Amino acid sequence: MVEAVLIDLFNLPTSLHNDIQGVMYNTLETIEKCSSTPAPFVYVMCCQMPGSERKGDQDSLLPALREFQSTKKRLEVVCAQTTAAVLYTIKQILDEKDLSIIKVILPTLRKELMKVYIDHLFTAVYQFEFEDLKVTSDCNNLKTIGSKSEEQAVSTQDVALIQSEIQMHLESLPSLKGELTILKSSLIPDDIFLHGFTTRTGGISYIPTLSSCNLFSSSKRRDPQVVVKENLRRLANAAGFNPENFHRIKTDHANAVCIMGKTEPDSYDGIVTNQKGVTIAAPGADCIPLLFADPVRKACGAAHSGWKGTLLGVSMATVNAMVSEYGCNVKDILVVLGPSVGPCCYKLPRESAEEFHRIDPKCVRQFDSAAPYIDIRRATRILLESGGILPENIQDDSVTDQNQNVTFCTACHPDKFYSHFRDGTNFGTQIGFISIKD
């Protein structure tokens, strides 16, 4: 069932501008005939240039569309200078209404270009179908605008131009929810390492559970990769690293570790490097983003540790990789636990809680209940100390000075952090990142 219809009038032939209302009547009549449900929302896309660049044809098209809009319910005219700007505005409207099944009616010669825009600005959450825009000919028969013979493959240059247009539009958007904020640990020496933990402010993601500095995109979420890339660009600019030399963990909730410079595994929850200027990062939206730094051997690491990864020992697997690959002494390695769900909020089924209870009974609260509270941070500290990390070289929620705290509970602070536990499946993601300074 189509929930929304987009009518693309960008590059509409000049000969049709004077009969734009006729074009619209024909198109809407077709939509109504083909719709088995109440009329879908209709959005008309058209170009609106700045006043100094307007042409007579452009001036005549928009007023006619506005007049037509005033007579039709559930129809909205959306204008901007570029296709990227119009589509992104419409995407915001669709997301606000939670619409995902969309028909695009457009001239045939625009179809392949439109698919490129859609591939970049939308994710697999949305379903698109395409239909040719038709008008009434002199013989009162419908004809397609732009014949099949005019349909052209999109060149590499066209794709590059579209990507540039999208990027320029996203870069022009204001930051949401305040300025971009980075939490830093006093434990990691900033004369050797660049590091930090992100919060949810200062990006352009607008969907409530993803707003605003979401740093992960997937086929199950509505934030496309281009938006995440723009959020990362803004983070890199604020933090001072190169986003083109950035490597994020490919999460598997296990204990595999990637060694930068060697063959990359298909998935891994730890990553280590001794290369200067390479920024590595671990995601977290309840799971713990851990940062590792050895100021003696000048090596660093990052790990993603949820309850499964904690039990599988991903934190010590990352430490052991630094020891074996770079000759680090375990007593020199510093470890910082970033924002993550705290023992105040996090529950697991009894059978999983039993495994944490075996690490230390203090890792479990209300052990006799069906879903005890779990302290994955405490479990992580115990496993690190058991592996030889010095207690004073670990920074976590045991810090008493709140000005030094970076291990906030993500579920308790909706204004600062994303939380899968709190927000459900369409959740945003923050990261912990670290690199060795040049």
Count of the domains: 2
What is the overall silhouette? Answer: elongated
Distance between the termini: 55 Å
**Which stretches are poorly predicted, pLDDT < 50 over at least 5 residues?**
none
Under the CATH scheme, which class of the largest domain? Alpha Beta
Provide the helix percentage.
25-40%
Structural class of the helix and strand makeup?
alpha/beta
| Fold-level CATH name of the largest domain | CNF1/YfiH-like putative cysteine hydrolases
Give the strand line-up of the largest sheet: 11-12-15-14-16-19
Family: Belongs to the purine nucleoside phosphorylase YfiH/LACC1 family.
GO molecular function, one term: S-methyl-5-thioadenosine phosphorylase activity
Protein name: Purine nucleoside phosphorylase LACC1
Keywords: Acetylation, Cytoplasm, Endoplasmic reticulum, Hydrolase, Immunity, Inflammatory response, Innate immunity, Metal-binding, Nucleus, Peroxisome, Phosphoprotein, Transferase, Zinc
How would you describe this structure to a colleague?
This protein has two domains: 4-51 and 60-136, Rossmann fold (3-Layer(aba) Sandwich), CATH 3.40.50; 182-436, CNF1/YfiH-like putative cysteine hydrolases, CATH 3.60.140.10. The longest helix is centred in the middle third of the chain and has 17 residues, at 156-172. The mean pLDDT is 92. Helices cover 30% and strands 21% of the residues. It is an alpha/beta fold and 438 residues long.
